[in-house]
Amino acid sequence: MHIQDLHGQSAVATSPEVHGRLGAVAVVGAAAVAAPGGVGPRSAPLRVDAQRNLEHVLRAAREVFGELGYGAPMEDVARRARVGVGTVYRRFPSKDVLVRRIAEEETARLTDQARSALGQEEEPWSALSRFLRTSVASGAGRLLPPHVLRVGAAQDEPAALPAEDEQRVPHQRQGVAQSEPRTVSSLSGGERPEDDAGASELLEVVGRLVDRARESGELRRDVTVADVLLVIATAAPALPDPAHQAAASARLLDILLEGLRSRPA
């Protein structure tokens, strides 16, 4: 090794072997700086934390929107998730984006449940009943986008919905300053409901359940896909006691199912 002072600086000449050892030490030191304790890169635990925060935000959004409707503020979502509102906005740059994410996941859940009922029940009425009971019990319809109900009615009935029939569309949970929640289509930049692939898929699968039950003579002829989705959206009341809510939902669904059944002339 040779050391020579040059303008107050030291130039170190080393052999290749020494240089290799020093390089290895430098790499280890850099890793130790990046992660205290030298356990590993700091980015790994940050990614885990980010994923955990995302799950907390999505869970909180489902709960808050399910209880208060899509008009609930983002601050309520952040408070329920126990994160700062800035964390919510880092994952979802606007409330519209978060609402669309929740609505799409809810629509996909219902579609899966409808397919499962079609595949597991041979009897048309049993398949429709199974779908309704599963969906209501899971709360899958609590966040059903209102425009899905309107599209369902439009597909079943050639004429547009009369103004008075608009009142049949549930507004999820009326709890935020009496403000009417906007539909997911308006929240996402004015897209037409017909262009929503997820909603179209849901309506197609539920339509098969409805058609089969109609053809078997067990479902009333005037019942539409929108009516079936309306049952799902309204048969899960929000009650503070989970056991009471489950019992109330089951009782309400029994009554609604009887209303859907056809009656001998």
TrEMBL record:
Alphabetic keyword roster: DNA-binding, Transcription, Transcription regulation
Taxonomic superkingdom: Bacteria
DNA-binding region per UniProt: 73-92
SUPFAM superfamilies, per database record: Homeodomain-like (SSF46689), Tetracyclin repressor-like, C-terminal domain (SSF48498)
Residue segments, region Disordered: 161-200
Residues annotated as domain HTH tetR-type: 51-110
Polar residues bias: start-end ranges: 175-188
PANTHER family, per database record: HTH-TYPE TRANSCRIPTIONAL REGULATOR BETI (PTHR30055:SF234), HTH-TYPE TRANSCRIPTIONAL REGULATOR RUTR (PTHR30055)
Name of the protein this chain belongs to: TetR/AcrR family transcriptional regulator
